[in-house]
Amino acid sequence: QVQLVESGGGSVQAGGSLRLSCAASSSTYSSYTLSWFRQSPGNEREGVAAIDVGGFTSYADSVKGRFTISQDNAKSTLFLQMNSLKPEDTAMYYCAAEPGGAWFPLSPAEYKYWGQGTQVTVSS
Fold this sequence. Notes:
The protein is mostly beta strands. The protein has strands at about 5, 10-15, 20-25, 30-40, 45-50, 55-60, 65-70, 75-80, 90-100, 115, 120-124. The protein has no helices and 11 strands.
């Protein structure tokens, strides 16, 4: 069982930045595929960014060049640096973890463990 706890959400004006963190209870964090998803009211959960066990990263087209996913295995923490934020980035952001690999790392169906979410609100 892996427990994930997100933090770092908040309210920011368009063009601003936020850094989300996701702390994991597992000491084998480095052997998981990790990701960030987001969901806004009335919309499906959307994959934002993922990093696999080899360090390869994937991003949704809507965030490429603005968001960066990274991890600190020593601290079992996943990060999402979000720059040049837009109002359409407003959503609840969730981190997710799956032991080993994932065929479709930006698909929510691939993930077994989820955090409770942290709200990001971007005003224009």
